[in-house]
Specification:
Blueprint (H helix, E strand, L loop, with lengths): L1 H32 L105 E3 L8 E5 L1 H10 L4 E4 L2 E5 L2 E3 L4 E4 L3 E5 L3 E3 L5 E2 L11 E3 L5 E3 L8 E5 L1 H10 L2 E4 L2 E5 L3 E2 L10 E5 L5 E5 L4 E5 L7 E5 L2 E3 L6 E6 L3 E5 L2 E3 L3 E6 L2 E6 L2 E3 L3 E5 L4 E6 L2 E3 L3 E6 L7 E7 L2 E3 L6 E4 L1 E7 L2 E3 L6 E14 L2 E4 L5 E14 L2 E4 L2 E5 L7 E4 L2 E3 L3 E5 L2 E7 L2 E2 L6 E3 L4 E7 L2 E2 L28
Parallel strand pairs: 1-3, 2-4, 3-6, 4-7, 5-8, 6-9, 8-10, 11-13, 12-14, 13-16, 14-17, 15-18, 16-19, 17-20, 18-21, 19-22, 20-23, 21-24, 22-25, 23-26, 24-27, 25-28, 26-29, 27-30, 28-31, 29-32, 30-33, 31-34, 32-35, 33-36, 34-36, 35-37, 36-38, 37-39, 38-40, 38-41, 39-42, 40-43, 41-44, 42-45, ...
């Protein structure tokens, strides 16, 4: 019995020792990297051929050491290791250990244990900087599935395999050019493109996911088409192959971005537009378009001669179009920035218009707002067509244009209504600053129009009603150019302005009637501070008249119910009948109160 007990104890001791050895191997394997993938350190014993050291007990031939008791047909991952070398949603066969490309860099935090990357891989499946990327998502590298990215090999099958494996996660494209036919990114897969990662597609790329991550370079550079993109918040024009280098024609790339998206981002650069980008050819049901850049002189669309840069016609134009922080630039005033007919609403903020025939033209527009834009060297900066209403122009800077704001509705056209212009500056225009015909309700408030060189006046209103100029500064030394000119205007209102011109300060012509007020202004002119033809029911009072010529002059026609009183006349101490310039031909019901006359 004693002998048998000793033998039993000896066997038990040996078993314990063997169990300890086995347990120690399993712990050792787990502590090396937290998974079956060895550490990227050179001490880990990772071979250059297979990425697995013989020290781990895995042979270079079969991937499994005879010491482990696992046959060569079985998995290379020890059963004691919970983490697979492939993400849990990916079959192990799709990422064999012999793959040279890495899907997780050495800097990957321990929270991403699902790595299939050997240390010899040059590419990372996780970019070094991951802004806004959901940290719970797994990166699946297309190169782990056989994609070459060399621009010549057909990577379609490999990328589709990676997309299938990435369900619910992110499919990652390291730098390279991936030649493909067609690709389909389903809604549960997010594409992520590293810098200088390109897809050269000959067929259709379909994107149903809700986002694309890119490091700001071109993505889709092929000749194929597109589908989807409707779910993505912002589309980058460079995703569609735009260069922005000022040399390549980027029209098609910008058109594709507009066709398939609502919000379009334009990185810094110069984008050549050699034919119209049509906003009435959208491939999605949402017809709205928002185009945003990085600055009015940073993200620039350079538009070829004679081209309507952004163009839309008829009822298929977007209900809402917005431009923000971009430039629309022409060469010799023959191109158009944007040209829309029957567009419902436009917003344009912090944009630059230069060298164009018309910076902006639109009809049937309503509720539009133009704010903080700069326009230079255009024939017309803002051109308003018929049937437009409630248009707001505020804090705009204009220099060396022909006309800042122009609205010449034809006799047969529909009257536009409600133009509000406030806190705007216009300098050195060759014609009028504001030119409006056949309109109603145009308000100018707290603006500066200086240095005008020609045209009828700084502000010219014709055949319109309810027209106002309030609290503005107007200066010009040009002969024949009035400060403010009301021509056949009903219900005018001119108050609180400072006008210094070589011609007429305020001029009104035939048909001036129905309660027009000219009050509390300061005029200093070279011909006459106030000049009027036939008029009815006009009240001119409490103005300061500093001109070196007569304070007021009159041309032919009847003057009915004219109230000219309480004006402070600095020159001539006018005699109304003799030398004030108000002729004795005034007829009927006129009242002249002395004030300081």
């Amino acid at each position: 019995m004693k002998g048998n007990l000793k033998i039993a104890l000896s066997l038990l001791t040996a078993a314990v020792l063997l169990l300890g050895i086995a347990t120690g191997c399993a712990l050792n394997s787990g502590n090396e990297g937290g998974s079956s993938v060895p550490s990227q350190s050179s001490d880990a014993g990772v071979s250059s051929d297979t990425g697995v050291s013989s020290d781990t007990g895995i042979s270079s031939d079969s991937g499994v050491s005879s010491d482990t008791g696992v046959s060569s047909e079985e998995s290379s991952v020890p059963s004691s290791t919970p983490e697979s070398s492939v993400p849990s949603s990916t079959p192990e066969s799709s990422a064999p250990s012999s793959k040279p490309e890495s899907s997780v860099p050495s800097s990957t935090p321990a929270s991403k244990p699902e790595s299939s990357v050997p240390s010899s891989t040059p590419e990372s499946s996780v970019p070094s900087s991951k802004p806004d990327v959901d940290s719970s998502k797994v990166f699946v590298n297309v190169k782990d599935y056989g994609a070459k990215g060399n621009g010549s090999a057909d990577d379609t099958a490999a990328i589709n395999a990676a997309i299938n494996a990435a369900a619910g996660n992110i499919v990652y494209f390291p730098a390279g050019t991936y030649k493909v036919s067609s690709l389909n990114f389903p809604s549960n897969v997010i594409p992520y493109f590293a810098k200088n990662a390109f897809v050269n597609h000959s067929g259709t790329v379909t994107v149903s996911s809700y986002d694309i991550y890119s490091e700001g370079t071109a993505v889709f550079i092929g000749k194929g088409g597109f589908s989807g993109f409707a779910n993505i918040g912002i589309l980058n024009v460079k995703w569609f192959g735009a260069y922005g280098d000022g040399n390549h024609d980027d029209t098609a790339a910008v058109q594709n971005a507009v066709n398939y998206g609502v919000a379009i981002f334009v990185p810094e650069g110069t984008y050549l537009i050699n034919s119209s980008v049509r906003l009435d050819q959208k491939k999605i049901s949402n017809k709205n378009t928002f185009i945003t850049g990085e600055g009015m002189k940073k993200s620039t669309f350079k538009i070829a001669n004679g081209v309507k840069g952004f163009y839309g016609a008829a009822s298929s134009v977007a209900a809402y179009v917005a431009f923000d922080s971009v430039g629309l630039v022409g060469n010799n005033q023959t191109a158009y920035g944007f040209y829309f007919t029957k567009v419902a609403r436009i917003d344009m903020t912090n944009c630059y218009l230069a060298g164009l025939k018309w910076g902006c033209y639109y009809t049937y527009a309503g509720g539009c707002r133009f704010s903080y834009n700069t326009a230079e060297n255009n024939d017309i900066a803002y051109n308003i067509g018929e049937f437009s209403m409630f248009l707001y122009y505020e804090y705009l800077t204009n220099r060396n244009n022909g006309v800042f704001l122009y609205c010449d509705v034809p006799e047969s056209g529909g009257v536009s209504n409600g133009i509000m212009i406030s806190h705007c500056t216009s300098e050195n225009n060759s014609r009028e600053d504001v030119y409006v015909t056949r309109n109603q309700t145009v308000f100018i408030e707290d603006c500066r129009f200086t240095g005008g060189k020609g045209g009828k006046a700084s502000v010219y209103y014709y055949s319109s009603c309810d027209m106002r100029v309030i609290d503005s500064v107007i200066t010009s030394s040009a002969a024949g150019r009035a400060g403010i000119f009301f021509d056949s205007v009903v219900d005018g209102y001119v108050e609180g302005n400072k006008v210094t011109v070589a011609d007429y300060g305020f001029k009104f012509s035939t048909g001036m009637r129905s309660g027009t007020y000219v009050k509390n202004n300061e005029f200093k002119s070279g011909i006459a501070d106030i000049a009027f033809g036939s008029a009815n029911d006009v009240k001119i009072f409490r103005n300061v008249l500093n001109g070196t010529k007569p304070a007021a002059s009159v041309s032919g026609g009847s003057k009915v119910n004219i109230l000219f009183c309480q004006n402070d006349i600095a020159v001539n101490q006018c005699n109304i009948a003799a030398d004030a310039g108000i002729s004795t031909g005034i007829v009927g019901n006129n009242v002249f109160a002395d004030g300081k006359l």
